[in-house]
Design goal:
heterodimer, A: 292 residues, mainly alpha, MetI-like fold, two-stranded antiparallel sheet, 2 strands, B: 446 residues, alpha/beta, D-Maltodextrin-Binding Protein, domain 2, 5-stranded mixed β-sheet, 4-stranded mixed β-sheet, globular
Chain lengths: 292, 446
């Protein structure tokens, strides 16, 4: 009887497992397999096994280095600003007039498809007709070539990333704040705690796990940044705004058609994401243990 | 029971009958770049009237997506499309995936239209948008090239002419060299001439896309194709294009290559955000009256025609040969996928779409630049569009990009490099361009 139940359970789960294996595991394994091959679609030759050569070439590739530079810049500048802004909004939006409306409006950037957002930002950043330069002209600031200068194009991508992802951080923290037991806050108030003390001694400690989750998710997202770059700067000018994912796209699809090398880049990116995530999760657990 | 069996048989006959009927209709999938799509849809309607059993589905796909999708399909031979428009510079990369139409014509003489005249195409156009390694892998469909658009009203304005004379001690005229263009562009830039009716002189597109790769040629080709250039670099190979010497080595790592970049830099102060502008932006700058001149493709004519700032159109917009005389080719061809299951029908469609009647119709109705000489020589066509005489002159003198399979890789490293030179992040010297040439040789494995 038990065997029968087990068998039917396996049979019921089997299609899903197969589906998962075909759509996820097989492409992944194939990508790993291809990373050990020289396979360029433009050469019209079958894949040729070259061992670790693709991986060694990564260290010599200037494109990889410049894309790492830009990705690090995003992590170091965009991510902290997003967290600060998201936290600030999540805290101060509580109980203000029109909270629901503001909350809905704040979520719009997250809901707009990246392609549409890209077109929109391209228009906003237009040197001649863009509203941003128009607004800046009131302060006697000369027209800024947002997408045509190495420095400004980096700033433009950072601004777009902050615009797109601050709402996500806000949403997570806002939801987190809603779950904090009100009696704790009330008790704090009874004990004479001011707003800052409630924030730093009650709300922040309770939101700490959420911050870790936000950092992990956003780090992974930044490493995967592609669409905004593709739609606005196309990695330029020069190599100024090449993100890692955009570079992988260029190597394997847009210019190189080097499936083997592109696969090795993807494998390395996957490993980097896994290591980063693992470190962050372990640090989070260590933190929790220390606090206990 | 008998009645039930009878019903089953009737049902099967009905279903199979439907299938047989459906099998008779062949569906052709045509992948097209957006600028060819409207004309192809129009042509396909007439084609379907002529061949009711062939259904043509035209799918417009953006340039950035079309090439990778087509390459992936022809490399894996999935046969997702029957006919596609391929861009001139992708010829070498996609060639193995397309049928040799010359051979196909020999094998299928019953399909050949005797009125379809292959000699009616300009030999150079036929080569670049039709031939690869001795095989006829496509038929020229959209004979695109770059033209020089200018504000006719401003160049004929008496007051402005006087101002220009005062400023430069020479007459204001449509520039015929890039050196002349610098002065004219400066004159029409408000920052340098507050009396200018336009904000900027010229709209240039030097972004981090393939655009910069072809834009360089309109500055470099005048040197490359000059008598001195031809003596130094040799004749231009139509597969390797103007970037190369006759013996297939990079030609740009030379004083002439440096001069071309210098000229691009010299014009940049008179253009709105040249490094951040592409096709769409420069089109808009001219259409809105922000600039006085713009080098652009033939297709923008339709946009300019309806732009409110450019009315009355015939008095405000003029078209000329590119300054210094060298444009760049941008042809599209129609090719037949080797993996197509409907090759005969697909061949009929290509033949129909590229016949004399449709070549003329697509130009008059949609402004898609003609591929056939009979069209550009047609008095009716010449009367309809002032571009035709300029166009005819341009296609005979234009420069060409490489069509070799390595082109995308060469393009990417070059655009990155040039972009950095234009930004001032790299010096513009022969030594620096030698570094780029070394990258090229690595890609070409020479």
């Amino acid at each position: 009887m038990e065997k029968g139940i087990k068998r039917s359970a396996i049979l019921m789960v089997l299609p899903l497992v197969l589906f998962f294996l075909i759509l996820t595991i097989f492409p992944f394994l194939y990508m790993v397999y291809m990373s050990f091959h020289h396979y360029n679609l433009l050469e019209w030759k079958p894949p040729q096994f070259i061992g670790l050569e693709n991986y060694f070439n990564l260290f010599k590739d200037k494109g990889v280095i410049s894309s790492i530079d830009f990705t690090l810049l995003l992590i170091l500048i965009a991510l902290p600003i997003e967290i600060l802004l998201g936290t600030f909004i999540a805290i101060f939006i509580q109980n203000i007039i029109g909270e629901r409306f503001i909350r809905s409006v704040l979520l719009i950037p997250m809901m707009i498809p990246a392609v549409v957002a890209g077109v929109m930002w391209k228009m906003l950043f237009n040197v001649e007709y863009g509203p941003i330069n128009y607004f800046l002209s009131f302060f006697n600031i000369e027209k800024i070539p947002w997408l045509g200068s190495s420095i400004y194009s980096k700033i433009a991508v950072i601004i777009m990333d902050i615009w797109q992802w601050t709402p996500f951080i806000f949403l997570v923290l806002y939801a987190g704040i809603q779950t904090i037991p009100q009696d704790l806050i009330e008790a704090g108030k009874v004990d004479g705690a001011n707003r800052w003390q409630i924030l730093s001694h009650i709300e922040f400690p309770m939101l700490k796990p959420l911050f870790w989750i936000i950092i992990i998710l956003r780090l992974v997202d930044i490493l995967k940044l592609f669409d905004i770059v593709y739609m606005t700067t196309f990695g330029g000018p020069g190599y100024a705004t090449h993100s890692i994912s955009f570079y992988i796209y260029k190597v394997s699809v847009s210019f190189g058609w080097d499936i083997g090398y592109g696969s090795s880049l993807s494998v390395v990116l996957l490993i980097a994401i896994t290591i980063l995530t693992t470190i962050l999760i372990k640090t989070m657990r260590l933190w929790e243990l220390l606090e206990l | 029971m008998k009645r039930f069996l009878l019903l089953v048989i009737l049902f099967l006959v009905f279903v199979l009958g439907q299938n047989i009927q459906a099998q008779k209709e062949v569906v052709l999938n045509v992948w097209s770049s957006p600028d060819n799509a409207d004309a192809l849809v129009d042509i396909s309607k007439r084609f379907m009237e002529k061949y009711p059993n062939i259904k043509v589905q035209v799918t417009p796909i953006s340039w950035e997506v079309l090439y990778p999708r087509m390459l992936a399909d022809v490399a894996t031979k999935t046969g997702a499309f029957d006919v596609a428009t391929w861009d001139v510079m992708t010829a070498g990369a996609v060639a193995p995936g397309f049928v040799d139409l010359e051979e196909f014509r020999k094998q299928n003489p019953d399909l050949v239209d005797p009125k379809w005249d292959p000699k009616d195409f300009d030999p150079t156009i036929w080569h670049i948008a039709g031939m690869w390694a001795g095989k006829n892998i496509g038929i020229p469909f959209y004979c695109n090239t770059m033209l020089f658009y200018y504000r006719k009203d401003l160049f004929s304005d008496a007051k402005l002419k006087l101002e220009f004379k005062k400023m430069f001690n020479k007459d204001l005229k449509v520039p015929t060299t890039w050196e002349e263009t610098v002065d004219v562009a400066k004159f029409f830039t408000k920052k340098f001439n507050p009396k200018s009716p336009t904000d900027y002189g010229i709209a240039l597109m030097f972004p981090r896309t393939h655009t910069l790769f072809y834009m360089y040629l309109i500055f470099f080709a005048p040197y490359r194709r000059s008598p001195e250039g031809l003596k130094k670099f040799g004749d231009v190979d139509l597969d390797y294009g103007d970037y190369f010497t006759a013996d297939k080595k990079p030609a740009f790592n030379s004083p002439e290559g440096v001069k071309a970049l210098e000229m691009m830099k010299a014009l940049m102060p008179y253009s709105p955000d040249p490094l951040g502008s592409d096709y769409g932006e420069t089109l808009e700058y001219f259409a809105k009256g922000t600039v006085a001149m713009v080098p652009q493709w033939t297709g923008v004519w339709a946009n300019f025609k309806v732009a409110p700032a450019l009315q009355p159109f015939d008095k405000k917009v003029g078209v000329a040969v590119m300054p210094s005389g060298r444009s760049v080719s941008g042809n599209w061809a129609l090719g037949l996928n080797v993996a197509s299951k409907n090759k005969r029908e697909a061949f009929l469609f290509i033949q129909f779409a590229t016949n004399k009647e449709n070549d003329k119709a697509k130009f008059i109705k949609f402004g898609v630049a003609p591929s056939r000489l009979s069209t550009v020589r047609d008095p009716e066509v010449r009367k309809v569009d002032p571009r035709v005489s300029v166009f005819l002159q341009t296609i005979k003198t234009q420069s060409h990009r490489p069509r070799i399979p390595e082109e995308p890789k060469l393009e990417d490293v070059t655009v990155g490099f040039f972009s950095q030179i234009l930004l001032g992040e790299r010096p513009n010297t022969v030594e620096e361009l030698n570094k780029l040439a070394d990258e090229w040789l690595k890609i070409l494995k020479k």
